[in-house]
User: Fold this.
Amino acid sequence: MLRTLSLLAIGVCANALVGVTAWTQTPPEVTLTRFDCGIGQSPIDPARFNDTFAFPELKVTITFSCYLVKHGTEYMVWDTGFAVGANPNAPKVSIVDQLKQLNLTADQMKYVGISHYHGDHIGQVSLFPKSTLLIGKGDWDALTAAKPAAGVNPAPFANWISGGGKVEPVTLDKDVFGDGTVMIIGTPGHTPGHQSLLVRLKEKGPVMLTGDLSHFQENYDGNGVPIFNTDRAQTLASIDRFKKIAANLKATVIIQHDQRDLGKLPAFPAAAK
Ligand SMILES: [Zn+2]
Assistant:
C-alpha cells in the first residue's frame, strides 16, 4: 500500500512538472493575412458549379484569395492565385510585392501550401522556390504523371518536380508547425488531392479556409458539386467532414472565392490574430 502511495506521489509530481514546463513556454503568435490574388470580371455560370440544376438564376462574381500564415518567426503562404497579368481576372500586384509591404521576402516563407492544382491557385507558386511545397498527394501524383490529364499544368511546379525544391505530398492531414495551430485538412473531390486549411487564432478563434471545397455560400449550404470535380462522392464526404469540424470547433468558415466573405478578415495589410 505504502509503495503504491509513493509511486502515485511520484506520478503526481511528474505531472506537475510537465504542467509547469508547458505553462512557461509562450506559444508562438499565429496570425492570418489575406492577399488580393485577383478579382472576377463577370458572374460565373452557375450551371458549371453544381450538377443538380440548382439556382439557375444566381449571379455570383467570385474573387481570388491567397493568404499568409505567421507562426512565430515562421511563415506559410496558402494558395498563390493567378500570375500577375495572366488574364483579366488576375491580380495587379504579386504576392511577393504584397509581402514587401509587410517587410517580408519570398525566401522567408518556410512553406507554400496549395489547396489544389487549378490555375487560379498556382499562378505564383514559382515565386517561392526555396519554400517547402505542401500539396495533396493526389494532386502531386497528377502533376508528376507521365501524361498529365487535361487541365493539370505542371509547368509552375518545375522547381519541385525537377528536385530543385523540397516537396511534402500530404496524404490526408498535416499539422504544419507541430502544435495543432495550423492544420491542412484533406478534402479531396474537387481534385484528387484537394485540401483545406484550419488556422487557430488566439483572439478570433479557429478559422477554416475552404480552398475550392465550395466556391460560394449557396453551394456550401446546399452541398453543391461542380460538374468539373474529379470525384462526386469524395466531394460530398469532404464537405460533410469540413462542416462537422467547423461546427465542433465553432470555426469561422471563409470561402476563398466568395467576395461576401472578405469582411471576415481585416483588410490587407492588417492581420487577424
Ligand atoms: Zn479556384
Q: What stands out?
A: Residues 46 and 56 are 6 Å apart (CA to CA). Confidence is low (pLDDT under 50) at residues 4-20. The domain at 24-264 is CATH 3.60.15.10 (Metallo-beta-lactamase; Chain A).
